[in-house]
């Protein structure tokens, strides 16, 4: 395939998927991973894509762009599942567990369905439905839903959600984020979601952030928390060495999950 055709195909894939891996592009285009990396470097110089460790994503900060749940749920599936399995080891019988909205926390919820009995507090419509629909196959989990205004990622946010969380006390919060950055910390493109997630953090004894490698260097418009506010960060093994070093120095404990 000629270079121009490869470049067009790569840009189309990034626009469609938002985040793509070198290995997937190499298979799609029938070329080597090294060729794809050179193509991505060239496209980044033109401002058409942004290079990340192991792949490429849509360029720019996109500080207020909030992809819908359906789109995000098709991205980095193996990485999110690995993060969920690793995070589930932190859950024990009888705990009160907070699950913020997001596709990685949703993946964790699926794993927790097969685990010990816990009480779940969530602002995610999807997670609440997941536990409700599974209650027929086994003894149901107590699930508390915050209420609030619905976002494109199916989170319930705003003053109602925040007020509900201020009344609660959680053993552990599992927090999904839009981006993570050395200076901005953990961020989101939704101002109200940032406020609701801060209330989640205040309600929790321990805060566990779940974020795959593509979140590194992404900065949403609103900060949720600084890196040091995370007791644990669970990410995947495709995260670059520089990012690992920064995050290991910033968060309480860095845990790496292998897809």
Automatic annotation (TrEMBL):
Give the residue spans that cross the bilayer.
Answer: none
Q: Which InterPro entries match?
A: Carb_Metab_HTH_regulators (IPR050313), DeoR-like_C (IPR014036), DeoR_HTH (IPR001034), NagB/RpiA_transferase-like (IPR037171), Tscrpt_reg_HTH_DeoR_CS (IPR018356), WH-like_DNA-bd_sf (IPR036388), WH_DNA-bd_sf (IPR036390)
- Give the matching PANTHER family: AGA OPERON TRANSCRIPTIONAL REPRESSOR-RELATED (PTHR30363:SF44), HTH-TYPE TRANSCRIPTIONAL REGULATOR SRLR-RELATED (PTHR30363)
Q: Which protein, by its recorded name, is this? A: DeoR/GlpR family DNA-binding transcription regulator
Q: Name one GO molecular function term.
A: DNA binding
- Residue span(s) of domain HTH deoR-type: 3-58
Source species of the chain: Arthrobacter gyeryongensis
Q: Which keywords label this protein?
A: DNA-binding, Transcription, Transcription regulation
Q: Which Pfam families match?
A: DeoRC (PF00455), HTH_DeoR (PF08220)
Origin: domain of life: Bacteria
